[in-house]
């Protein structure tokens, strides 16, 4: 009897981790997911104890990133890196036993990946050191914002980026909203985008950027336009057609 094929999923955002697990259950029903991890350290521990045949690794995770987890892995597995950055969709990913998935993960792309993984079983030991080093060299750190100096009336307020759930354009200003209140800055959204981690913040409209983990629900209105509600903010936000694909599983 053929041994079941097992998989490890390492993704720090729970909604995306759950979505990938659900898609795999549909596209590869005989695959057994033996561990779902939210950081690199627990992913490496799970790899050591579970010895998966396939590992889906988010490149950016707390503790250890996916590249470092793959570098330290003690047993062979087919590796699939997950990234929100188009610059990582390189030919290098398609060499050897490495594959990649871009966020948001599309069903058709995952179907292709599953087909490749099936054809490569059982997993064999492949030296990925040179390839991982090459990819790591291309990994450009995100110039993230830590503190925002915003105006509340005549008062200046320091807001930590970890508290921000929404950036929204309002005439000549940008609204910076937390779950409890709002303030305003003069920096336009186009200048904020390069300094925000694309795995944490999504642009959903030309006038709005939201924190993914703050999403409470998303559903169409009577005219078929997709609306999003955030925790702590009563009014819904419209998702433009250009960004609607991000919510296909919601």
TrEMBL record:
Keywords: DNA-binding, Phosphoprotein, Two-component regulatory system. Residues 148-250 form the HTH LytTR-type domain. SUPFAM superfamilies: CheY-like (SSF52172). The modification 4-aspartylphosphate is found at residue 58. The keyword Phosphoprotein applies. PROSITE patterns: HTH_LYTTR, RESPONSE_REGULATORY. InterPro entries: CheY-like_superfamily, LytTR_DNA-bd_dom, Sig_transdc_resp-reg_receiver, WalR-like. Residues 6-118 form the Response regulatory domain. GO terms for molecular function: DNA binding. This is DNA-binding response regulator. It comes from Dyella flagellata. The lineage of its organism: Bacteria, Pseudomonadati, Pseudomonadota, Gammaproteobacteria, Lysobacterales. The gene is algR_1.
């Amino acid at each position: 009897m053929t041994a079941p094929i097992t998989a490890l999923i390492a993704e720090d955002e729970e909604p995306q981790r759950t979505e990938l697990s659900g898609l795999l259950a549909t596209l590869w029903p005989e695959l057994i997911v033996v561990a779902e991890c939210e950081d690199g350290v627990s992913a490496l521990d799970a790899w050591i104890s579970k010895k998966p045949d396939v590992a889906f690794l988010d490149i950016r995770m707390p503790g250890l990133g996916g590249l470092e987890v793959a570098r330290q892995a003690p047993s062979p597995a087919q590796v699939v890196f997950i990234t929100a950055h188009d610059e990582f969709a390189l030919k290098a990913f398609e060499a050897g036993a490495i594959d990649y998935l871009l966020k948001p993960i599309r069903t058709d792309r995952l179907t292709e990946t599953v087909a490749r993984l099936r054809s490569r079983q059982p997993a064999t030991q492949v030296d990925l050191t040179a390839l991982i080093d090459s990819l790591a060299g291309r990994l450009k750190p995100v110039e993230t914002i830590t503190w925002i100096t915003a105006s509340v009336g005549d008062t200046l307020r320091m807001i930590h980026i970890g508290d921000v759930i929404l950036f929204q354009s309002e005439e000549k200003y940008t609204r910076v909203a937390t779950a409890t209140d709002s303030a305003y800055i003069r920096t336009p959204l186009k200048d904020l985008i390069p300094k925000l981690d694309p795995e944490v913040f999504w642009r959903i409209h030309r006038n709005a950027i939201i924190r993914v983990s703050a999403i409470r629900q998303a559903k169409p209105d009577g005219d078929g336009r997709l609306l999003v509600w955030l925790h702590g903010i009563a009014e819904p936000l419209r998702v433009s057609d250009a960004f609607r694909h991000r919510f296909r599983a919601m």
